[in-house]
Amino acid sequence: MPFRAYIGIGSNLGDRTAQVRTAIARLAALPGTTVAATSSLYETEPLGNASTWYVNAVAALDTDLEPAPLLAALLAIERTMGRTRVAADRYASRTIDLDLLLFDDRVLDEPGLVVPHRALHERRFVLTPLAELAPDVLHPGLGRSIAALLANVPDAKRVVRLPG
């Protein structure tokens, strides 16, 4: 039986919408993986010193991949789409960003692999599209639903659903 994983997707360089759609297509092409659902696209105010707003979405995957190989595949997709990671600036602009948000009800804290994503419960731009897909899913570390986390998130950054 496949695992259910939720992937946060974001872009603030180039054709942001096309980058997000390309990433979703590449997720669907992963071995043993189906994109079960995708959220709407949202334009979101950036964190840190990035000057361009992001386009963000969340994809629900049904996958046979375990968390570590899935994360490796996400990083490979980022590289093929031109992502350059800047260690000194974690909020640097990027062509694409793929984050493993949730993986079934697992809690993992290993070198290079933390699930649920550490900042999931603090970020409106992640919780809004995730709540669209999975409002009743529980954050396995906090025991609260995604909808409840969104209702109480202190993040005041703007998140605007794009038409279509």
Assigned CATH superfamily:
7,8-Dihydro-6-hydroxymethylpterin-pyrophosphokinase HPPK
The CATH topology name reads Alpha-Beta Plaits
Helical content (DSSP H or I, runs of 4+): 25-40%
Class from helix and strand fractions: alpha+beta
Number of domains: 1
Terminal CA distance? 33 Å
Question: What CATH architecture label applies?
Answer: 2-Layer Sandwich
- DSSP strand content: 25-35%
What is the arithmetic mean of pLDDT?
94
* DSSP helical segment count: 4
The gyration radius over C-alpha positions equals 15 Å
- Strand element count: 8
Description:
The protein has 164 residues and is α+β, with helices and mostly antiparallel strands. It contains four helices and eight strands; from the N terminus they run βαβββαβββααβ. The protein has one domain (3-161): 2-Layer Sandwich (Alpha-Beta Plaits), CATH 3.30.70. Strands 1, 2, 3, 4, 5 and 8 form a six-stranded antiparallel sheet that branches. A two-stranded antiparallel sheet has the order 6-7. The longest helix is centred in the middle third of the chain and has 14 residues, at 67-80.
